[in-house]
Amino acid sequence: QVQLVEFGGGLVQPGGSLKLSCTASGSIFSISVMGWYRQAPGKQRELVASITPGGATNYADSVRGRFTISKDSANHTLYLQMNSLGPEDTAVYYCNTWPRAFSWGQGTQVTVSS
């Protein structure tokens, strides 16, 4: 079972930026579509960005143009650069394969507030 650990969240003002990281205990980035998901209070978890083994990316409409997903397969690390953050981006962010194949990690909290 691959373990996923997310970190890099925090409190940021509207318009600010954060970069999230996710490390995996196994070599999955080169063989799996990887995704960043988020779950806001009272809402279902949603996929916001994904990246294929070949590096093709896709984004939810709500984050396209503001978020960038990338990876370092050699170091088993997935990233999510988030710019122009707004209160609607407040959520716990998780990484996993798409579709999900592993247990959820603890996630990392992102709070956008002034």
Describe this structure in words.
There is one protein chain. This protein is mainly β and about 110 residues long. The protein has strands spanning about 5, 10, 20-25, 35-40, 45-50, 55-60, 65-70, 75-80, 90-95, 110. The strands form 2 sheets. It has a 6-stranded mixed β-sheet with strand order 2-10-9-4-5-6, with no helix packed on it. A hairpin with a 5-residue loop joins β5 and β6. The radius of gyration is 13 Å and the shape is globular. The protein starts with a strand and ends with a strand. The mean pLDDT is about 95.
Concise summary:
The protein is an all-beta fold.
- How large is the radius of gyration? 13 Å
The general outline is globular
Which strand order does the major sheet show? 2-10-9-4-5-6
Continuous helix count: 0
> Mean of the pLDDT scores?
96
* Largest β-sheet summary: 6 strands, mixed
Strand content: over 45%
Order of H and E elements: EEEEEEEEEE
Distance between the termini: 39 Å
Helicity range: under 10%
Q: What ranges have pLDDT less than 50 throughout 5 or more consecutive residues?
A: none
Decide which structural class fits the backbone.
mainly beta
Number of strands: 10
